Structure formats: structure tokens, C-alpha cells
From TrEMBL:
Substrates-to-products reaction catalysed: [(1->4)-alpha-D-glucosyl](n) + ADP-alpha-D-glucose = [(1->4)-alpha-D-glucosyl](n+1) + ADP + H(+)
Example GO molecular function: alpha-1,4-glucan glucosyltransferase (ADP-glucose donor) activity
Pathway where this protein functions: Glycan biosynthesis; glycogen biosynthesis
Name of the protein: Glycogen synthase
Keywords attached to this entry: Glycogen biosynthesis, Glycosyltransferase, Transferase
Length: 454
């Protein structure tokens, strides 16, 4: 089976979050299972890696010369679509709807030019929605994964219609139109034969007004048509492995974790109180405002080490704790430090308002760090109650209460060690999810494909 993933980022070449991590891990496992797998993403100016240019030419409707670069790694063919729109620093910008419309229009023509048209095109999040729509027009079977429904790629019609290269019949309430806007997330939803989200719980939640971001009607219809599925994300267990991690004192079980904790404590001059770690985007979605409001109580019993960047108000609020002896805040992305926090903390806080899947709790458990999580999305699916600590309300008090529960459990040394051992033996490898996706592609290939609107 020939599969081509289309996404805006892929680790280690481009990454801003969990989407890049998924695209850096899932395709390689699918290749090991026997599929012929590629990934197509933008050729950013700041791409980490030097692709070999394998094609250059013109694409109808796309301004300027188009080029394609290639890297082959782990049995996966990584293709990078070079467009003038992506020759600037960084990954994402305010004009991204127009930029990713150009990207989406270029996907099928360059795959045809490279003789690389797959059996199934698998788009990821709104940035790939237009590529899925063009695949539908050409009769190419498509799958589409929602990694975060909050971000939808909206722009006002009719201006945005001219960017897409799609026929006018597709801009209707049953198609890509959404309250007078083009909606590229909706393009993927309505044009793919099968749609997935990154956890079973999130697949249920997004069919409700609370989590559906205005698209709950579309998603409920997909559920009733058996076209919406929740497939839990896996974890790259080679990249995140305390037995081989060069960033931390290496350990294989709960008994060896103490050295990592001691190293983190020494790195930041922390006292003997237990360590609560946080590695997160600083965003309302992640509940970072709840964490900040809870800090006066948390710091009575915990050292709190936070790594992350994002919303300026949340960054400023954490900066305000800079002189507190039990609070460490490191702004921005720092992967080596992230490894040290995952390994060295005893507990790990994720007070998310919603969480499609989450990778941080998977990493934390692999390192024997017990999650304190809100009961939502993939956090429900992945954090067993005999391992971590869950709370229902999105409030600072509920977070603080769960941390008190964790502190009490920490006082029972044998019980805590048993929780840590269970956490470290949980299987969150990509093998199961990768097989599930390959089965889903079979359903995509066998699905009826009605003609797209013209």
C-alpha cells in the first residue's frame, strides 16, 4: 500500500508541537509494517536538514517557481514542497490561510510530476485540508486526521475562494463554507472518506457543542455514518527512553530515578520538597492560567519547574514568580531541558481545558513521573487512575486538590514506587496505532466516493 502523509510539520525537520512529533514517528512504523510511506510538508527557509532537490517546475495557480526536495530516513521518503510563500523565518504567520492554500494546490501536481501519487493521501489538520479536497476532485482516496479542532484555517469568502483552485460548487454549507468563511479544517472533514482524531475520548467530545468548535454538527454526522474514528497517538519510544537518554542519568526502573531527580534539584538549586514538572505551550487550552493561580498553594509543598512559551500574558505572569525559591520558569523551547524535567520531576501537571491526545503525559509516565491531569480527551484514555491523579473541574482549586492527593500518595513510599513501576511498563508504542491506521486505509480504499461538487 502506498501512503502519502501531508502535514505542515515533521520532526526532526520542522516542528512546533505534537503534530510534528506524530509525523516524525508514525510513518516510520508504518514503513516497518510493510507500507510504502512518504511525507510531504513545506520546504521552510529554516528547515533542519538539507534536502536534495529532485524536481523544479511550474504549478497551475501557484505563483513563482516550485521545487521539491527529498530526504530518505528510516524507510520513509520525506518530500519538501518549496514555494515562495515559505521562504521566510519561522513556520507559521498571520497569512497562513493563503500560504497553505498555495501548498494545498501544489500537492497533487508535484506528486504526479514525481510519479508518486499514492493509493491513499492522509492529510493532517487544517493546513492539509485543501490537499484532501483536491484529492477528492481527482478521485484519489483520502483520510484526514484532526489533531486540534480549535485551529481551523478560516478566511472570508469570496476572497479566499480565489486562492483554492476549487470549483464554486464546493463553497456551500454542505461543503467548505462556514458562516461566510472558507474553512480548511472543514474541507478535510467533508472531503475525506475517513476522518480520525488522536484519541477515542476526543472523538466523542468533538461531537458536542462544548468541544466541537462550531463543527459539532458535521462531526456528529460523520459519527453516524461511521466515518469518524478515534485512534490514540503513540510515543516515539526510541527518542523518549530513560534507559538510553543522553540528557539524563540513565535508569531502567523506579529505583534508578532518584539520580535524575537529584540532578534536576541541583541544576536549579531547589530544596528538598518534591518536584512538580510542566512542559507545555503557555496557552489557555493547556490550563496554564489555572496553574499560575494555583501556585501560591502548590509552592507550600512542591517545587514547580515550568518550561514553555506562548501567550505573552501567561509568560509575564510566570516571570513574576522569578524570585520565588520554589518556582523555576524557563521560557521557550529547550528539548534537552524537557528531557531533564520529564526524568527529574516526581509528578507532572497537565490541567488542560481540552486535550486531543497529549504526548507529555505519555513521556512523563515512560520516565516514571506521575501525571496530574484534568479528565478530558486523551488524558482520560492514557492516564490510569492507579498510576496518575485526575480531576474533573477546570479550576485552580481542583488542580491544587489533585496535587494534594499526589503529595499524600508520595508519602507512601511503597505505594508510590508501585505506581511508578506501572507507569514505566505501560505500552504506548506506535505499533498498535500504526496497524489501526493501515486497517483504516483499507476502509478508505473500499469506500464509495460520490462525485465532488462542481
Amino acid at each position: 500500500m502506498r501512503v502519502m502523509h501531508v502535514a505542515s510539520e515533521v520532526f526532526p525537520y520542522s516542528r512546533s508541537g505534537g503534530l510534528g512529533d506524530v509525523l516524525g514517528a508514525l510513518p516510520g512504523v508504518q514503513a516497518r509494517l510493510g507500507a510504502s510511506v512518504g511525507v510531504l510538508s513545506p520546504w521552510y527557509a529554516a528547515l533542519d536538514g538539507q534536502p536534495t532537490e529532485v524536481w523544479r517546475g511550474e504549478v497551475p495557480g501557484v505563483a513563482g517557481p516550485v521545487r521539491v526536495g527529498e530526504l530518505v530516513q528510516g524507510g520513509v521518503r520525506f518530500l519538501f514542497l518549496g514555494l515562495p510563500e515559505f521562504q521566510r523565518p519561522g513556520l507559521y504567520h498571520p497569512d497562513d490561510v493563503q500560504r497553505f492554500c498555495a501548498f494545498g494546490r501544489g500537492v497533487l501536481p508535484v506528486l504526479e510530476a514525481l510519479d508518486a501519487v499514492p493509493d491513499v493521501l492522509h492529510g493532517h489538520d487544517w493546513q492539509a485540508g485543501l490537499a484532501v479536497a483536491h484529492a477528492r476532485l481527482r478521485g484519489l482516496p483520502g483520510a484526514f486526521t484532526v489533531h486540534n479542532l480549535q485551529y481551523q484555517g478560516r478566511w472570508n469568502l469570496p476572497e479566499a475562494a480565489s486562492w483554492t483552485g476549487l470549483p464554486g460548487g464546493m463553497f456551500t454549507p454542505e461543503g467548505l463554507e462556514f458562516y461566510g468563511d472558507l474553512n480548511l479544517m472543514k474541507a478535510g472533514l467533508v472531503c475525506a472518506e475517513r476522518v480520525t482524531t488522536v484519541s477515542p475520548q476526543y472523538a466523542q467530545e468533538i461531537t458536542t457543542p462544548e468541544y466541537g468548535e462550531g463543527l459539532e454538527g458535521v462531526l456528529l454526522r460523520l459519527t453516524l455514518e461511521h466515518r469518524l474514528h478515534g485512534i490514540l497517538n503513540g510515543l516515539d519510544q526510541e527518542r523518549w527512553d530513560p534507559r538510553t537518554d543522553p540528557e539524563v542519568p540513565r535508569y531502567a526502573d523506579a529505583g534508578g530515578k532518584a539520580a535524575a531527580t537529584a540532578a534536576l534539584r541541583a541544576e536549579f538549586g531547589l530544596d528538598a520538597a518534591p518536584i512538580l514538572g510542566v512542559v507545555s505551550r503557555l496557552a489557555d487550552q493547556k490550563g496554564m492560567d489555572l496553574l499560575i493561580c494555583a501556585l501560591p498553594e502548590l509552592t507550600r509543598d512542591w517545587n514547580v519547574v515550568v518550561l514553555g512559551g506562548g501567550q505573552p500574558l501567561l509568560t509575564a505572569a510566570l516571570d513574576g514568580w522569578a524570585n520565588h525559591p520554589r518556582v523555576v520558569f524557563e521560557s521557550g523551547m529547550n528539548e534537552p531541558l524537557a528531557h531533564r524535567i520529564y526524568a527529574g520531576a516526581q509528578a507532572f501537571a497537565m490541567p488542560s481545558r481540552f486535550e486531543p491526545c497529549g504526548l507529555s503525559q505519555l513521556i512523563a509516565m515512560r520516565y516514571g513521573t506521575l501525571p496530574v491531569v484534568r479528565e478530558t480527551g486523551g488524558l482520560v484514555d492514557t492516564v490510569p487512575e492507579d498510576v496518575g491523579f485526575r480531576f474533573a473541574a477546570a479550576t485552580p482549586d481542583a488542580l491544587a486538590a489533585a496535587c494534594r492527593q499526589a503529595l499524600t500518595a508520595l508519602g507512601d513510599r511503597a505505594g508510590w514506587q508501585a505506581r511508578v513501576e506501572r507507569a514505566m511498563t505501560l505500552d504506548f508504542s506506535w505499533d498498535g496505532p500504526a496497524r489501526h491506521y493501515l486497517d483504516l486505509y483499507g476502509a478508505v480504499l473500499n469506500a464509495e466516493r460520490p462525485a465532488a461538487p462542481r
